[in-house]
Structures are given as structure tokens and as C-alpha cells.
Amino acid sequence: MRPILTQLGALAVGPVPEGVRAGIPSRIIDIVGIAVRASSLDTSQAAIGFAADQCSAPQATPIGGGRAMSAPEAAFVNGVLAHSLDYDDTHLPSILHPSATVVPASLAVAEWQGASGPALIDAVAAGLEVTVRLGMGGYDSRARQSVYFERGQHATSICGAVGSAAAAARLLGADADGIAHAMGIACSMSSGIIEANRAGGTVKRLHCGWAARAGVTAAQLALRGITGPPTAVEGRFGLFQAFLGDQADFEAVTADLGERWEAENIFYKPYPANHFTHTGIDAAIALRSRGVRVDDIANATLEVAPPTVRTIGEPIEAKRKPETGYHAQFSGPYTVAAGLLGGGGLGVGLDDFTDELACDPTRRDLMARVDVVGDPRLMAIYPCQLPARLTLTTTSGHTLVEEALANRGGPDQPLSDDELATKFADNTAGLVADNVADRIYEDLSDLASALCVTGMLAPLLDPIGKQP
Predict the structure, then answer these.
(1) Strand 370-374 vs strand 297-304: parallel, antiparallel, or unpaired?
(2) Predicted TM-score (pTM) of this structure
(3) Whose CA is closest to 65, among 467, 468, 459?
(4) DSSP conformation class of 323
(5) What is the pLDDT of residues 28-84, one digit of tens each?
(6) Positive or negative CA dihedral for 353, 359, 363, 366?
């Protein structure tokens, strides 16, 4: 059998189906909007400051960065921003976030190289497919769980570095062999652990930026003659053995490659929180629409697939008392409370995840009444969907149940063009002048006919400044 990187290199340089290409501009718009909204975070400013300290050549636009930077540093900044709000898309069932690495890497190289819109679209599509295929290599279909996740690793940044290298190398004009070498180099740069999901810390926000930076750097080095091992994925000392041991699924990486595109199974996020919380939010919103009042709730039980409990329900004492808005994004009790109390955006929005609301006495009181438990019956659906069941007992002794078995934003319940436009508008509101946001939205929507993308994001160098 040909080495996996040889097969992925052939895919990455080949044609992309029109159906896949048609969805890529919306992926880019989504990531750009999220990055704009995240630009004011303290962690974003730290990342921007770090990148600025490198004193690199002005090649590409770091959103909110104040000045142009080298392609790797711009990819780093935008990757950090793209993942910092937990608002970026998710591939299921691999449970990784592909666009937050691949899109920043691709945008940076495309801007630097003066690539056309169609070239950018094709590179993003190829990078996404490589990323999710490697993610599926770590998906255990019998246990219905990501092996990466089980071993404490962040599949998003591990696989995203390799997918970003494929996209960047394609934009730099590499052939299939050159792309394979870029990916082989990136395999030595792949990294990320997810202890921050459980115990706190903001380092996870850096993961997608570092992966995007690694991907661009790997592609640049490959074009300069550095080579990677052809068996960097499946070899005895390759990526899969290092991260997955003997649990890798090689067939999932290459099955129907180029004929069936896993990238079509990437779910947009309607809510800015860990994806495991979304159907619980949907159930809470549905109960609120049925007239449930918070004061009438004696207790509530959020039932989810057992593997997700450790992320959104353990330790339960901490999940009932998140210290920050960021920690609240990984809390089942908090997100249920947000859904029951009402919010902005598409039902629950970024304004629901502030540090002040995380410590709000009303929400703390409600969270104290919410349990998070695993229901093995939901494993029949998980992780192709991330289902939830919310059961409320009222103070009068009544029981109310609401199920949400499929996620909004995926193939079964896609977000409409209007909903995606609303998300972009919410993310840019107050940070970018409306006419600037509208122009960028229109330019990115029309990528298929753009002759050159250089300068397209330049108005976002200082989004906090509300440019006229």
C-alpha cells in the first residue's frame, strides 16, 4: 500500500468537488468573524504581543495585530483568535475543530502569495479533509470515542498542524510530493494536551494558532528542500504510534479518499461553548419556550453520552461554580442555566459568557440544582451527534422532559445563510464599522470569483478601533 502521506498529498493537489467548494467561503467567514470578536481578549493581546516581538516581515494580516506580520506569525495570531471563544466548527464523529487551524494558515499564505479566491478555496478544502481524515484515524468506532481524547491529547492541534501544512504547501505551489514532505515535517510539530478542559488554564486557546504556525512553517521548509519521512503517519515511530499506540484506524484515513469527503460532516456552532453542551442548551431553550420559569425549578438533570461527562460535568462542584466566562463554556450546569434564562445570538450568545455572569448569584443558585449524568442509551447516537436529555422537577412536583438528539449546525439541521450572517454580524458588532464588516462579508462570500485575496483582511488589522 502506498504511504498515507503519499495518498493525502495526491488528494491535496487534486480537484475539489463543487459541492465541497461551495461551502468553503462560509467556513472562512465564520472563522474571520470569531477571530474579530476574540481580538480584544487578554489572551489574544498576549498572543499578538508575542508575535509582534518576532519582528517578522510584513506578509499577512493578523486580525487586531496593528501591523502586518510574516505568514507564520499571522497564522499563529488568527489561529489563537479563531479557537479562543470555543465558537469554531467541529467535525463529528472525530470531535475536532478543523477550520480554526486550516483557515488561518491558508489565509496567511494566500495573502502573502497573492493567491486567487478559487485557489484559497481549494487549499482550505484540502487542508480540512487532511485534518479530519487524520482525526478519523484516531476514532475508535467500537468504543465510540476519540483515542486522542482518551489519552489526553488535542486532536484539533495535532491533526490541524498536518492539514495546515497541506493547505499552505498547495498555495505555495508544491506538487503532491512536496505537499507530502510538508505534512511529514508537520508531523514532528504536532502537539497539544487537553488538561485545561478539565482543570482550567487558557493554554488551549493557543493550540490552533501554534498548529497553524507549524503548518505554514513546515510548508516553507519543504519548499526549501527539507524532507519528511514518507511513513511519518503509519510508521513504527510515526505520528499514529506516538499518539494512538496500537489503536489507530488506518483504513479510516484512506477509505474512499477523494470520492467521499469527510469535510462535509463539519458542524457549525450556533453557541459559543464546548460542543458537548449544545444540545443541553437546545433542550433548555425548548423548556423555556414551554413557559418554564427558573423560580419553579426544584432540580434538573442533564443526561448526556457518558464520555462527555468528564468535560462538562466533572468535577461537578467546579462545574456548578465556574470562576470565569471561559470556564463557563465547559460547564453543563452553566450552559443549561444560560438556556433557561435566555440570551442573545442564536439563542445563547457571547454576552452570556462573561466573568460577571459566571459568578452571578441567580445563575449560581440555579447551577447548584443541576446534575450532569451519563446515559449509556445515548451512545447509540454519540458521537455522530452529541445528544442530551434535560429533565426538570418543578417545585409543585411535576416532571418535564426535553430531548435534543441532533445538533444544530450539521447536515441534519444546518444553519441557514441568514443565521450564519447573523453570527458574523454579532461577532463583528462594536468592533468593526458596519460598512467595513459588510464589505468583508461580501468579499469573502464572493471568493469564487476573486482574482486576488491580498489586502482583503487589511481593514481588520485594528478591529477594536472601529474604522470609519
Answers:
(1) parallel
(2) 0.93
(3) 459
(4) S
(5) 999 999 999 999 999 999 999 999 999 999 999 999 999 999 999 999 999 999 999
(6) positive
Q: Strand, coil or helix: what is 274?
A: coil
CA–CA separation, 251 and 115 (whole Å): 34
| CB 130 within 8 Å of CB 233 | no
How far is residue 324's CA from residue 311's CA, in Å, rounded to a whole number? 16
DSSP secondary structure string for all residues of 213-262 = HHHHHHHHHHHTT----TTTTTSTTSHHHHHHTT---HHHHHTTTTTS-G
Please list the alpha-helical segments (H only) found in 376-468. 417-428, 434-445
Place of cell 471568493: 447
- Name the band, by pLDDT with cuts 50, 70 and 90, for residue 200: confident
The set of cell numbers assigned to 287 is 423548556
Residue type, 114: G
Instruction: Report helix angle 417-428 to 18-38, nearest 10.
Output: 20
Instruction: Let me know how long the chain is.
Output: 468
Cα separations in angstroms, 395 against 300, 336, 369, 392, 400: 11, 18, 12, 10, 12
Q: Are 285 and 346 in contact (CB under 8 A)?
A: no
Q: Which residues of 113-147 are buried (b: 16+ CB within 10 A; e: fewer)?
A: bebbbbbbbbbbbbbbbbbbbbbbbbbbeeebbbb
As a whole number of angstroms, the distance between CA 140 and CA 157 comes to 19
Query: DSSP state, 396?
Result: T
With vertex at residue 124, the alpha carbon angle to CA 119 and CA 129, rounded to the nearest 5 degrees, is 130
Give residue 268's identity as a one-letter amino acid code. Y
| Backbone φ and ψ of 392, nearest 5° | -110, 140
